Each structure stands twice: as structure tokens, then as C-alpha cells.
Amino acid sequence: MPTFGDAFLNNPNVSMESLIEGIAEREVEYTLYVRLDDIEELKKKAIRSERHEQWSIPTGKPDCTVKERIRVIDNIRPTQAVKTKDPTKVGVEEVEDDITMDMFVAKRRMAVDGYFKTRYFIPTSIRGLIWEVDVFYTNGGDLCPWVKVDLEVKSLNDPIPLFPLAHNR
Predict the structure, then answer these.
(1) pLDDT in tens, 138-151
(2) What average pLDDT does this structure show over 13-40?
(3) What is the structure's pLDDT at 93?
(4) H or E stretch including 42?
(5) 28 in Cβ contact with 150 (< 8 Å)
(6) Burial class (CB in 10 A: 0-12, 13-18, 19+), 157
């Protein structure tokens, strides 16, 4: 069974980010994109879901080492995040914090792009690890069968659990 260390060395889609609000921290996150065979299967296996409106804020740095995004979860919890890439370190450092709805609306005016998605949470076979599956919407409002899958782990040496949904890569 491959480890996350193996996957990180061979996959540029692995990033590190923080879930601790307002405090910069590095965590290992494995990311992949798949086409689900049945979105209804995803909904049945999810233990919960969240609706996200998410926007990117330009930073004015041409090298894109700093990225800012804002998000509102379930139309009630606005957040902001700043992601910083240090070329001398592995991964991305993220600082995330709650903001007011007024701040979200003000920052959304500065956004260059945005989208709506639903995030589904599915437990893995490894205690404490959760698959986060982001389903995006087309311009017509339909669900897109291609989804983004994230799995945050404690260590690059953690085993990769099997993804529990039928899919194509």
C-alpha cells in the first residue's frame, strides 16, 4: 500500500494547509480529481454536507506566492484564508479565520473569480480521516460529475485509504 510520502513525491497536487482558525499551520492534504459514476451514491455515503460560495482575491503579486480567498459556508459562516507558498519549504501554509458577512460582501467586490460548490464529508476506513468531496455546479445549475477530492492526514507516512465511491480518473 503506498504512503502519503510516496504520493507526495510523485504528485504535485498534494498541498499542506491549516484548519486552525487564525493560526498558521502546515498539514498534509492529498488532492485528486475524479469523475463519479453516481453522484447519488456520494450523497448517501456522506455524513454531512456544506454549501460553499467561494471567491479568489487578487494579491497583486505576479509570482502568485500568496493567494487569498473568501468563502461563505451554508450562507451563514463567512471565512477568509491566505495561502503562502515558500519555495524553500514543502507545501502551502494557510491561515484561515472567520470574518463578518459585511467583510465578506466588501471583499467579494474585489474578487476576480468565484463559484458555488457543495462539500460532502465521507469517513474513511482509517479512524479520524475524512474524505472531503467538492461537487461543483455548471453555469446552468446542474451538478458536474467531475469532483475534487481532498484527504487531510497527520503524516506523509499515513497509508492512503481506498476511495469508497465508483469513479473514473
Answers:
(1) 878 888 889 999 99
(2) 69
(3) 83
(4) helix 39-45
(5) no
(6) exposed
Are 93 and 82 in contact by the 8 Å Cβ rule? The answer is: no
How far is Cα 23 from Cα 164, in angstroms, rounded to an integer? Answer: 32
At 166, the amino acid letter reads A
Q: What is the pTM of this model?
A: 0.80
Q: How confident is the model at residue 85 (pLDDT cuts 50, 70, 90)?
A: confident
Identity at 114, one-letter amino acid code: G
Residue 56's alpha-carbon distances to 61, 104, 127, 159, in angstroms, are 14, 12, 33, 32
**CB of 79 within 8 A of CB of 71?**
yes
Instruction: Give the containing element (helix H, strand E) for 83.
Output: strand 77-84
Sign of the Cα torsion 167, 74, 66, 91 reads: negative
Cell of 111: 474578487
Query: Grid coordinates standing for 109?
Result: 467586490
* Least confident piece of the model among 44-53, 97-106, 114-123, 136-145: 136-145
Contacts of 150 (CB under 8 A, 6+ apart): 29, 30, 31, 131, 132, 133, 134
